[in-house]
Amino acid sequence: MTSTGLALGVTVLTVLAVTGVGLLAVRGRVRSVEDFIAARDSVGRGTMTATVVASTTGAWILFSPAEAGAAFGGLPAVLGYALGSAVPLLCFIPVGRRIRAVMPAGHSLTEFAYARFGPAMYGFVLVVSVFYMFVFLAAEMTGIAGALSLVADVPLWQTSALVGGFVLVYTVYGGLVASIVTDTVQTLVILPLLAVGFGGAVAALGGPAELHATAVAADATLLDPGFRPGLAFGVYVAVAILGSNMLNQGMWQRVYAADGDRALRDGLAVAAAAVVPMVLLAGLFGVAAAGLGLTDSGTASVAFFVVLETAFPTWVTVVVVALAVLLVMSSADTMFNAIASVVTADLARLLDRPDQRRLWTVGRGLTVVVAAGAVAVGAQGYSVLELFLTADLLAVAVFVPFLTGLYTSRLSGGGALAASVCGLAVGVARFPPLRGPLTALPGASALPAPSFLASFIGAAAVAAVLTFVATAVGDAGADLETLDRDVRRLDDPVADGGENEEMDRR
Amino acid sequence: MSAVGATAFAALVWGSVLAVIVVFVYVAGSLLAARDRTRKE
């Protein structure tokens, strides 16, 4: 086992370096609440690629794909995970263009939900989106705390407080601009670390031929591309990732941050191309762990680290600790700012004449609250898998009706909400983690067998069909051309009462 | 069949490593090009 002091030292150096970059790079660049939560039209295609890669690939890539490879169906599960991680990014190319066209001065997905569908659907989207983002954040903090505890016996609270605290420092100071700047640096470090680390690890384990032979000898289904449980896992995880990412405010912020359609398209397309091999390589560690007989049902979630501890010298572990910390920081800063931005943008709408100083204080205060919550949860060592799946199910039920509102004026808020709720009901009825509580209800014995595949596909399919029906039979007459009328830039003199000078003096 | 599987597996592994390197080169190149454009302006 790596010494606690060494692991903590590497963690401290990593968080200090990233925080330093974040603070220095944004000096003088954040002059308004608009910059703090939107950074509108400021990001070219290289930075767009980097920030999307860094935001979407957290420490989960060191846990979940490997667990999928080890325990949920081998290679087809990993392939489904990898392709499923790329699909939402590709979907955001046309959807992102549409978002920018329909609501050019927008900031958040909840602004769109309110303007397009009204308060009921807005409330539903707000709850689902914030719940998903907070669970993602808590999972990241739990993951890094658990990883350092496993490889170096670092107490959970120390890791959680250290990483969360430093991310908070530069995120409170620089908001989205700081998040994007640090994402760029983190991606430039993460990509070579992954390539060298994973490539070296495969070579150290005897090369692909040796790994293949070992895995086939241990369990031929591990590398069988037609293995049905693996395929089923690949399909439902892809649907789950798609739904949850479409309701990820961090992605909506980056859609607005792109400096044009070309940066949006190229950045998202290359990020999608990057995510596939990253998840695939991480997942193959799970396949390797299972093939080498290093995992059982209790250690599948840390298959990557089990292989690491077993087969590699201390310096490799140190590199992976730095990598894991970078991965967590890059997605944690995105979520800190994303959750704060949702509420800040909504507050700007709710208040009659909000001034910049008040909004900025609220945005920063909310960032602190979100960070404190994430640090506290991360220090507990909870299993967040079921919460994650629950958040995914909520998102899967709502994303089709929600996004359909971008393209048609016929779908009403009531129709969208009904489609979401019915989709959710179907998903809940087949959702394995909720089968226990559901059995207490009358008539529960008539429920079909629980299944993640049926739950996620059922929720998405029912919501999609009902959205189609509601669009066909109803005509809400929503005017998409005027959606933007109630949404203003937050540095607009009309919105802040013409008090920009006040901010300039800060 | 096993030889085909092993070859495909090797292609998957090294292809993925190569793809990550290519993305790194793309991002770094785009950032450098953007910096040069900014300096010229």
- Per DSSP, the total helix count of chain B is 1
Please state the oligomeric state of the protein chains shown: heterodimer
Strand content of chain B: under 5%
Structural class of chain B: mainly alpha
Rg calculated over all Cα atoms of chain B: 18 Å
Q: Please, what is the average pLDDT of chain A?
A: 85
Tell me about the largest β-sheet of chain B.
none
Topology as H/E string of chain A? Answer: HHHHHHHHHHHHHHHHHHHHH
Report the helical percentage of chain A. Answer: over 70%
Q: Stretches of chain B where pLDDT falls below 50 for ≥5 residues?
A: none
Structural class of chain A: mainly alpha
Compute the number of helices of chain A.
21
The helicity of chain B comes to over 70%
Beta strands of chain A, count: 0
CA-to-CA gap between the ends of chain B? 58 Å
Low-confidence stretches of chain A: 493-506
The biggest beta sheet of chain A is recorded as: none
Largest interface: A-B, 34 and 24 residues
What overall geometry of chain A do the principal axes of the alpha carbons give?
globular
- Whole-number radius of gyration of chain A? 23 Å
Shape of chain B: rod-shaped
Descriptive account of the structure:
Chain A contains 21 helices and no strands. By secondary structure, chain A is mainly α. Chain A is globular. Classes of the chains: A mainly alpha (506), B mainly alpha (41). At the A-B interface, helix 3, helix 8, helix 9 and helix 12 of A face helix 1 of B.
List the helices and strands and how they pair.
The complex is a heterodimer of chains A (506) and B (41).
Chain A: H1 4-25, H2 33-37, H3 45-56, H4 60-71, H5 74-102, H6 109-117, H7 119-152, H8 156-204, H9 207-218, H10 228-246, H11 249-257, H12 261-291, H13 303-311, H14 314-350, H15 356-378, H16 385-404, H17 413-429, H18 435-438, H19 452-473, H20 493-496, H21 500-504
Helix pairs in contact in A: 1-8, 1-14, 3-8, 3-11, 3-12, 3-14, 4-5, 4-12, 5-10, 5-11, 5-12, 6-7, 7-8, 7-14, 7-15, 7-16, 7-17, 8-14, 8-15, 9-12, 10-16, 10-19, 12-13, 14-15, 16-17, 16-19, 17-19
Chain B: H1 2-40
